[in-house]
């Protein structure tokens, strides 16, 4: 497990694998919109002190591997990522599902990473089918 020493304190970092779906599983993502979502995720991660280790998506969902410190909860991370990316997506003029205000389904999937080596999971995410 990765650790960092900050101000004489040792932090152990956790890893999670997450999937977020568009509302109604609408197939609305393009390569351009996924790039915007990725940039939004990186911005949130920088501000909240965690890292996006891998990111990819298909036309109706995204995958991400995240490294985060113990001071953050999974729900804090996911809520911030989904909220900021939805706002940025709308501000950029991309269509949201069925003209609704929400980009994301309220549900999401997360799992701690540890059963599969991190590199295997990263390769899986990289090989997801890109939208056309």
Structural account:
The chain has 132 residues and is of the alpha+beta class. 34% of the residues lie in helices and 31% in strands. It is built from three helices and six strands. It has helices spanning 31-48, 74-91, 118-126, and strands at 3-6, 9-12, 14-22, 51-57, 61-68, 104-112. Strands 4-5-3-6 form a four-stranded antiparallel beta sheet. The chain has a two-stranded antiparallel sheet with strand order 1-2. Strand 4 (51-57) and strand 5 form a beta hairpin. Helix 1 crosses helix 2. The longest helix has 18 residues, at 31-48. The chain is globular, with a radius of gyration of 15 Å.
Summary of the model, kept short:
The protein is α+β, with helices and mostly antiparallel strands and 132 residues long. It has helices spanning 31-48, 74-91, 118-126; strands at 3-6, 9-12, 14-22, 51-57, 61-68, 104-112.
């Amino acid at each position: 497990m990765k650790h960092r020493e900050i101000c004489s304190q040792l932090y152990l970092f956790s890893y999670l694998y997450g999937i977020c779906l568009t509302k109604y599983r609408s197939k609305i993502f393009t390569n351009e919109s996924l790039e915007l979502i990725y940039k939004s995720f990186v911005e949130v991660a920088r501000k909240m002190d965690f890292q996006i280790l891998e990111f990819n998506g298909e036309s109706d969902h995204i995958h991400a591997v995240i490294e985060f410190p113990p001071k953050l909860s999974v729900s804090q991370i996911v809520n911030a990522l989904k909220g900021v990316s939805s706002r940025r997506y709308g501000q950029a003029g991309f269509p949201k599902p069925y003209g609704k205000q929400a980009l994301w389904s309220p549900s999401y999937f997360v799992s701690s990473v540890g059963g599969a080596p991190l590199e295997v999971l990263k390769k899986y995410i990289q090989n997801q089918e890109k939208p056309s």
